[in-house]
UniProtKB/TrEMBL annotation:
Belongs to the glycosyltransferase 2 family. It holds the Pfam family Glycos_transf_2. GO terms for biological process: glycolipid biosynthetic process. PANTHER family: DOLICHOL-PHOSPHATE MANNOSYLTRANSFERASE SUBUNIT 1 (PTHR43398). This is Polyprenol monophosphomannose synthase. The keyword Transferase applies. Keywords: Glycosyltransferase, Transferase. InterPro entries: DPM1-like (IPR039528), Glyco_trans_2-like (IPR001173), Nucleotide-diphossugar_trans (IPR029044). It comes from the Bacteria.
Length: 269
């Protein structure tokens, strides 16, 4: 197996209680996963914990640090570009808090090896589910997925899922600078872009368990962005040739403001 086969990107903001445990759990699988943590200047010292662990996993554990909380979406976009530049063939998204079980990483990988371009760890297909998630979060999440499917007609059950394996070709084909949403809408847009570009998406059932340590970063703005974002995606796909514009090497852009947003991001050297 080539060295640069699989990398798991974990975005973090204040995950001190979880980060060392999840990193150790991924490496304990002995499945040759590399791990990239994108930390947004967590005041609780998450990045320092990752740095201290790097000597245990030389050449396998990486850390990128940004100076402030800039959202899940731009953290992943940075991680995607970082991973593609180094030649990883399978690139994963995963939360830091054990909502996604490390043991399921291999199942997502297998789904891609067996032909899927994008494998989604899905709570809302047969065999999937949630454990210990508050009723209001379940309603919001299921309602959000239903709303997205009704508006976009995208054939994905868990549209906001954050546990994903992409074949590198999918991320290479998408103009990542055109992916503009930050929160749950980012998760929706990545699936929407992959679907619009004709990639095969497979939902693999997973059990999502609520975090035991730390707090969710969910806030009202994320919900608002999701509601409006889905309408925008539909609008752009109907009237603005979204498919062509989100393709890599497209000369036109759907979201000209993205350039400006990017410049706000300051990286820790
Ligand atoms: N770098 C960075 N990381 C962030 C940020 N916001 C959140 N994170 C990290 O992103 C992961 C998920 O954030 P949570 O706040 O734990 O998400 P959740 O409420 O449990 O949301 C779940 O449901 C969402 C909707 O279905 C999913 O999108 C998400 O992946 C997860 O499954 C965690 O590792 C968290 O530290 C940010 O601004 N920057």
């Amino acid at each position: 197996m080539p060295d640069l086969e699989k990398i798991v990107i974990i975005p973090t903001y204040n995950e001190r209680e979880n980060i060392a445990l999840i990193i150790d759990a991924i490496f304990a699988l002995r499945q040759d996963f590399h791990v990239l943590v994108i930390d947004d200047g967590s005041p609780d010292g998450t990045a320092a914990i990752v740095k201290a662990l790097q000597s245990n996993y030389p050449g396998q554990l990486f850390l990128e640090q940004r100076t402030g909380k800039l959202g899940l979406g731009t953290a992943y976009i940075h991680g995607f570009k970082w991973s593609l530049a180094r030649g990883y063939r399978f690139i994963f998204e995963m939360d830091a808090d054990f909502s996604h079980s490390p043991a399921d990483l291999q199942r997502l990988y297998e789904a891609c090896k067996q032909g899927a371009d994008m494998a989604i760890g899905s709570r809302y297909v047969a065999g999937g589910g949630t454990v210990n998630w508050p009723r209001n979060r379940i309603l919001l999440s299921k309602g959000g997925s239903l709303y997205t499917r009704l508006i976009t007609w995208m054939p994905v059950k868990d549209t906001t899922a954050g546990f994903v394996c992409y074949r590198a070709e999918v991320l290479e084909s998408i103009n990542l600078d055109q992916i503009r949403f930050l929160g749950y809408a980012f998760q929706i847009e990545m699936k929407f872009a992959a679907w619009k570009l004709g990639f095969t998406i497979k939902e693999v059932p997973i059990i999502f368990e609520d975090r035991k340590f730390g707090a969710s970063k969910m806030h009202k703005g994320i919900v608002k962005e999701g509601i409006l974002g889905v309408l925008k995606l539909r609008w752009y796909s109907l009237f603005k040739d979204y498919r062509n514009r989100v393709k890599n090497n497209s000369s036109t852009s759907v979201f000209p403001a993205m350039q400006r947003d990017d410049q706000k991001i300051k990286w820790v050297k």
